[in-house]
Every structure is written in structure tokens, then in C-alpha cells.
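dumping this here so i dont lose it
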């Protein structure tokens, strides 16, 4: 069961109106028991006003008690409390991790002897964030190019997103090297894991008590590798021993080869069954075009605001469509979102309904949203 499907509950009553009524009723009952007289506290009564101030303290105290007690449950725990619940199931919050990429390093001339690209060789994009090699790499005799992995020196997401060719300067110059350039978009840098992501992994932790094997266990271990993974599909081709991990990252981004290589290495023999061959891969892209014309009611008093909201809804649809593996291309969802944002009528030319498999993800190519004008209700 998903955490979101668990029912909410409270340890103590926290409804302010009910608490205030209980305090007023307690006072009236106590007054009658002490004096034998019925005293009704009407709104505006000085005693009732005083009891309101006491009720406020009671409400705040109950809310604190309620929240403190609920910190013992994964669905509600935050910060250090959630860390302690994770430790019970040997699941720990991800700390900052640096981005990685691959660099193509080129020499001016071939050499009859091997040459060393030393550990710590640094490269940088124009904004000055350094990437470096972590180990020595050997350029073989006769070779003029070598591909070397490089890691960002600053942990976190700050090193992500440098497209191929943007990291193109060598900090430490070597006489036999003439150029270096990244061939992958830098990726894999994550900030310290937030509560929502970590909470889901803690909830899934029992799936990882054994080696990967069941689908849920593979998902658990993959999410433990990187919180950048937003969606994952697992399937095996019968009789092959191959376990395909189809991985999609945050914001619908595809994983680079460096990221997939890291995920493959993470599934060591201690995690995967020896008979399984794990094959991480990016989903295949199914491109689609989106063309729609919308109309808004003539009764709208602020058309520009409504149009802005419809533009936002259109972009939300594009994001929604690419953010999940196997999500069918659904023009009805586009109409729904634009109508919800304020459109009176929506004519969608493209896309058309298209089935997307569990190894594919839809991605927009050419998009065009046109304002058709205003119409009477």
C-alpha cells in the first residue's frame, strides 16, 4: 500500500471549535455544581472571552502533542525523526553527491610510449566550476584520444546540465594535450535528499531486505542509488536472465551513459542474484507534436490573466506527459487542463491518442498554442 493511501488520524482532538465549546461547557457545568445556579456564557461575556484565551493555549498544546506523537510514524515524520525511523530499517538519507560526465582528451601527436592523464586533472566550463579525474588514466601508445570520467568538485545539483562541449578548458596544462571536451551532459549530482523522497524509500525498505529479485526490490535498490530517479520500470525477458531497468530522471530527463554505468556498478553481486544480468537503460523517446486552439468566455473580466493561466496549464501538460515511463499520449488530458485553467472551448489538432509501452516515454517536439478569441457562454 502506498503511504498516500493510508488514512489520516489524530491522537487527540484538535478541532478548535470543539475544544472551545468543551471548555465553555466545562465551566458552565462546574459553576452549576458549585452554586446550583445555571449560568449561560453568551458571546461577548467577559468570562467567555477569558476562556477563549485559555482555549487558545489548549489548542496549541494539543496540536503540539498530536504532531509529536505522529513523528513516530513514517507518513508524518520529518527531519531527524524520519532519519531515526529510516535507521530502524537500515535506510539512510542520501547526502550531497557530485555530478559526473565523460571527457574526451586529445593529444597533439601520437607517441610510441604510453602517457598518463593524472588523477586530479581538472577541467572547467566558462563559469568556473571544476570537474576532475579521480584516478590515473593511460593513453595507449599510438593513440591521440582517450575518454576519461570526471567528477564535479562541488557536490550537489550545481554541476548538472553542462551539455556536451560546454566543459572545454583544462586547468592543469600538459605539453602533449591540446584539448578536452565533455561528451555527455553532466548528470547525477544530487542535493541532500528531502523528506518526501526519503520517506518513500523508508516505506519501501522491507522490499530490499533480500537481494534484488522481485520487481519492488529492484525499484527499491535503484531509488537508493540516486534520488534523481523519478520513475523506473522493471521487466525481464523470460529465459534470458536479463533484468531491464528503464530509468527516467527528474523533470523527464534521460539518464546519460555515465549515470547508467554508475547504476549498473551499484547492482553488485551483493544486491542482485548471481543469475541475473542487470541492464539499466533510458526509455526510448516517442516524439509527438501538440497543436491546440483555445477560446475563452466573453464574460471574463481579466482575459490576460486567464490566457496566462492557460499557457501555464499547457506547459504543465507537456511536463505531465514526459514525466512518467509508459504514459500514453492523451489529448483528453490536454483539453481537461486547459478547460480547468479557464478555457471555454479547446480544439486539439495534435496529438492523437497513442499507446506508449513500458520501455518508452513521450516527449513533445513541435508545440503551438493559439488563442482563438472570445466567445459567448
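and the seq i came up w/
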Amino acid at each position: 500500500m502506498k503511504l498516500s493511501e493510508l488514512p489520516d488520524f489524530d491522537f487527540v482532538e484538535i478541532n478548535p471549535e470543539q475544544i472551545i465549546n468543551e471548555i465553555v461547557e466545562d465551566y458552565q457545568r462546574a459553576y452549576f455544581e458549585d452554586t446550583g445556579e445555571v449560568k449561560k456564557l453568551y458571546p461577548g461575556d467577559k468570562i467567555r472571552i477569558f476562556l477563549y484565551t485559555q482555549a487558545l493555549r489548549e489548542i496549541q498544546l494539543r496540536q503540539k502533542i498530536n504532531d509529536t506523537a505522529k513523528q513516530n510514524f513514517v507518513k508524518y515524520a520529518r527531519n531527524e525523526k524520519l532519519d531515526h525511523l529510516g535507521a530502524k530499517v537500515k535506510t539512510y538519507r542520501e547526502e550531497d553527491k557530485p555530478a559526473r560526465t565523460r571527457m574526451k582528451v586529445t593529444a597533439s601527436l601520437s607517441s610510441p610510449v604510453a602517457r598518463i592523464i593524472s588523477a586530479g586533472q581538472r577541467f572547467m566550463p566558462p563559469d568556473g566550476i571544476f570537474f576532475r579525474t579521480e584516478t590515473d588514466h593511460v593513453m595507449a601508445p599510438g593513440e591521440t584520444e582517450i575518454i576519461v570520467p570526471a567528477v564535479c568538485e562541488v557536490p550537489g545539483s550545481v554541476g548538472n546540465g553542462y551539455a556536451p562541449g560546454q566543459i572545454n578548458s583544462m586547468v592543469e596544462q600538459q605539453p602533449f594535450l591540446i584539448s578536452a571536451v565533455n561528451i555527455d551532459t553532466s548528470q547525477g549530482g544530487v542535493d541532500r535528499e528531502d523528506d518526501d523522497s526519503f520517506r518513500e524509500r523508508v516505506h519501501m525498505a522491507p522490499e530490499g531486505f533480500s537481494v534484488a529479485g522481485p520487481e519492488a526490490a529492484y525499484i527499491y535498490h535503484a531509488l537508493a542509488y540516486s534520488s534523481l530517479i523519478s520513475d523506473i520500470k522493471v521487466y525481464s525477458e523470460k529465459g534470458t536472465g536479463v533484468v531491464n531497468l528503464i530509468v527516467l530522471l527528474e523533470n523527464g530527463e534521460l539518464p546519460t551513459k555515465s549515470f547508467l554505468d554508475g547504476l549498473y556498478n551499484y547492482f553488485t553481486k551483493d544486491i542482485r542474484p548471481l543469475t541475473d544480468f542487470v541492464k539499466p537503460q533510458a526509455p526510448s523517446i516517442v516524439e509527438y507534436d501538440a497543436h491546440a486552439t483555445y477560446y475563452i468566455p466573453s464574460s471574463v473580466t481579466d482575459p490576460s490573466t486567464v490566457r496566462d493561466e492557460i499557457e501555464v496549464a499547457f506547459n504543465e501538460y507537456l511536463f505531465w506527459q514526459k514525466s512518467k515511463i509508459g504514459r500514453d499520449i492523451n489529448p483528453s488530458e490536454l483539453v481537461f487542463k486547459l478547460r480547468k485553467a479557464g478555457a471555454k472551448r479547446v480544439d486539439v489538432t495534435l496529438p492523437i491518442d497513442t499507446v506508449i509501452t513500458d520501455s518508452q516515454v513521450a516527449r513533445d517536439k513541435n508545440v503551438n498554442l493559439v488563442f482563438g478569441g472570445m466567445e459567448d457562454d
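The chain has a mean pLDDT of 91.
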